[in-house]
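Minutes, project huddle
Topic: does the predicted pose make sense with fe (ii) ion bound?
PN asked that the exact inputs be recorded in the minutes so nobody has to dig through chat later. Recorded below.
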Amino acid sequence: MNQNIQNYRLTADQLDQELSQQNPLLLFDLRPKDQFENAHVKGSVHAVCDVQAKQTIMPKIPQNVKIVLISEPEEVTRETAQMMRTFGLDAYYLEDGFYSWKGKTEKGQTGKTVAAEHLESILDQVFLLDVRNEDEFSEYQIPGSVNIPLDELFDEKTLEKIPKDKTVVTICPHGNRAMVASFALTRAGIDSQTLVGGLAGWNQILKPITASYKPKVIQVQKIGKGCLSHIVESDGEAIIIDPLYPFEKYIDIAKEYGFKITKVFDTHQHADHVSAARDLAKKVNAELYLSKYEGYDYDAKFVEDNSVIRFGKSKLKVIHTPGHTPGSLSYVIDEKYVFTGDILFVESIGRPDLRDEAEEFTEQLYNTLHEKLLPLSDDTLVFPTHHGDNVEATNGAFWTTIKEAKKLPWLDISRQEFIKRVVAITRPRPMNYRKIIAVNKGELELMHSEIPDLEIGPNRCAVDAS
Ligand SMILES: [Fe+2]
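Predicted holo structure (tokens), as shared on screen:
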């Protein structure tokens, strides 16, 4: 063995000594997760040393922090330590791997974690520490979170910004950087929890809220993205409008209330999230309804302006409401509710989704709003498919009325002024929108496990929502 390798090999006794002296070090266990969870060196973190980790985590670890890698067999860690040293890191590996370790071990996940569903219920009691880079953070973040990039957490001065009287929850895209961040915090004596699955996991939570009765409307909110979907029930029969992944949630809700899901609708071809309409309809053997004015590579019942669909004791009427997409539909139910997709929101109006033809679509948007939606009766409840960050919910649900919508600044200006202002909007499109549209059209098949990553990011559907 050459001298070089000897220099960064650590025996189990040496590691035990380092730990007992409480020397600050980062302990990374590179074994498969199930082996790690079965037993690992107390205080170690499960780590995956893939391309992503090389790009996102390694450059953030300061060169003066001692790192010890554990694996089985030791060759893996020896090579990784060697590679990490080429990045200038102070990396070592445990000689003879995990099974040489006779000291304290523990089971399960590393450190403390918090599940996304639970975090949602304690949001106001915790300090949300987002450890991504500034550019990633500025794109999209959990409201109320504070950004301190991972590499800065190794700096004592930065740590002073973290309050001592609140539980710290570390956040990153998938939980890997956040895990290292929690480790850095523990070294500094700060107790923290890691958000399981990171922002990708946070983005997949669906939360149901009953918004209205007769017919019953349950608004199912994807809280991480501000996406809204709806279950409308009449006489035990339920329809779902704009369902989201994971679609099993709608099946659970229907079971809980004793509803039968018979019909599934999309208002339009979404660009910011993957529609679960096709999969949900297939799973529960329901009819799938889509816009006749949009192209899909799969079969459905295609509906158009003035189509009428009955369910339970209710009547759904289709209105063609172009402007966001050329084929956008709105659904009026029992002349009491209107489901407006991305045309009319609580706080704003939709954006024309085809920028190349923005002017033409902005005209359509104006006509749709003034000639098709605002003429509905003032007390019609408006349920959109998204909401912005700063929109107040009413008893937990996001809706407005036609009467209130008429007061929106966007709807109180001349046609000319409206077109001028809307066309001038240059907000970025939703992240990954091309791929999402291709999936929603049926041109591209996706594994369900790929959806959280594709959907990461804000919805950006309104003209002025943040
Ligand atoms: Fe949309």
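Observations noted during the meeting:
- Residues 3-104 form a domain with the Oxidized Rhodanese; domain 1 fold (CATH 3.40.250.10).
- The pocket of fe (ii) ion is lined by residues 268, 270-271, 324, 342, 461 (CB under 6 Å).
No decisions taken; revisit at the next huddle.
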